[in-house]
Model the fold of this input.
Amino acid sequence: MLYRPINCREDFESLIQIGKTSESIHWDYKQQFNDEKKSDIAIDLAAFANTLGGTLLIGVSEKNIDGRKVANNLFNIDEFERIKKSVYTSVLDLISPHIDVQVVPIKVDDVLIVAINVDPSVNLVSVSQEKKGPYYCFPYRTDFGNKYMAFEEVEKRMMDNKTRAMYLKLKKYIPERSKIRIYPTPLGNAQTEWTYEWIDKAENEFKLICNETMSIRLPISDVDEIWQGNISLCLKLKFQLQKGFNFIDIKV
Done:
């Protein structure tokens, strides 16, 4: 699922428990912002952008517990404006194409920390490196930190960009279990109500539900467009569904 950005103390406390919460696909910790390691910050931000979005928390130390990096202590960050300027200039200059970030000060128990929220990117982004000559890396995020895409993964991601764009659009504009209108109008559609839900741990597939009684699983690549109608959100498929007495099928 898409991450929830951390914009205030309430957001932080609802997601992060000191001594308990480990780093994840959606957040990571750094005790200090090191100007000499801007490329490391750029890699963290690009990894979130290339995955499903996330937050880098500056001013949160970590410790290793059973192989997991867990939030340990809070440290006051007294140079928020300098960090913000550095992120928006020298750090983001290392990332291409452009990504959307928000640098937010958060007061927790009289300690000021900094959250760098990163929106997921439709485009695959890279980080410029200078180690042993200039080169580009393509990081992504896991529950255990950052990893780097191999050539074949980069190639596949570039080919899958349209599906990813539709996935992010679905996540952003249509809350799970919301009512939707489907086009082309499904056959046998009289007096039916359609909703959709995400399939757990499936980024490329979702479920359409009819009258809360029957459902069909579809790949996101079968979605042609999404828009806000006058009454409800609208979902256009690349084919026409047909509804029977106790089934949903694809009309061929």
In short: The chain is about 20% helix and 40% strand.
